[in-house]
Design a protein that fits this description.
With 167 residues, this protein is an alpha/beta fold. It is built from 6 helices and 5 strands. Helix content is 47%, strand content 17%. The chain is globular.
């Protein structure tokens, strides 16, 4: 059975890095970053644009699930709103797949350290770090498999996820 691995967590926790490494480790896999489906300039987050992003995401996941060459869909995004998470899963209810829900977490100090070492994303400013720190508590409460990434490398996080996926 095909598998959809949703990797969730706060901004800066390592979702994209882990997801890319995981996709390379899995055969017949597709990588989807939710940010690609919500890339507006200027960035506007309201009900309309969130619903559009959800439609974009579910459309792509369904296409991957319908592709004979794809066995795994690795999808990552900051889903700090239950509405978004539930709507994505509801829109996939007509598909046959196994869902694996992973939440990456870390301690505030680790998040801050990673935040300032990230030279790729120019939006890594103090305001967004504060938002991400405040969201840590929310992600701890999710009904998912949680992995604390504070003191382990992305490759080790992938090893943990890989073992979960392979049963």
């Amino acid at each position: 059975m095909k598998k959809v691995i949703i990797i969730n967590g706060p901004m800066g926790v390592g979702k994209t890095t882990v997801s890319k490494i995981l996709c390379n480790k899995l055969s017949k896999s597709a990588f989807l970053d939710g940010d690609w489906c919500f890339d507006l300039h200027p960035f506007i987050a309201n009900k309309e644009t969130k619903e559009m992003a959800i439609r974009n995401i579910t459309y792509l996941i369904k296409n991957y699930l319908n592709c004979s060459e794809c066995e795994y869909v690795v999808f990552n995004w900051v889903m700090d709103n239950e509405f978004v998470y539930e709507n994505i899963l509801n829109n996939l209810s007509d598909m046959n797949y196994q869902l694996i829900k992973i939440t990456l977490t870390c301690k505030e100090e680790a998040l801050e350290d990673r935040w300032y070492k990230d030279k790729v994303n120019d939006w890594r400013i103090q305001e967004w770090l504060d938002v991400s720190k405040r969201s840590l508590q929310y992600f701890e409460q999710r009904d998912t498999i949680k992995i604390d990434t504070s003191n382990i490398s992305p490759e080790n996080v992938v090893d943990v996820i890989y073992d979960i996926i392979r049963g």
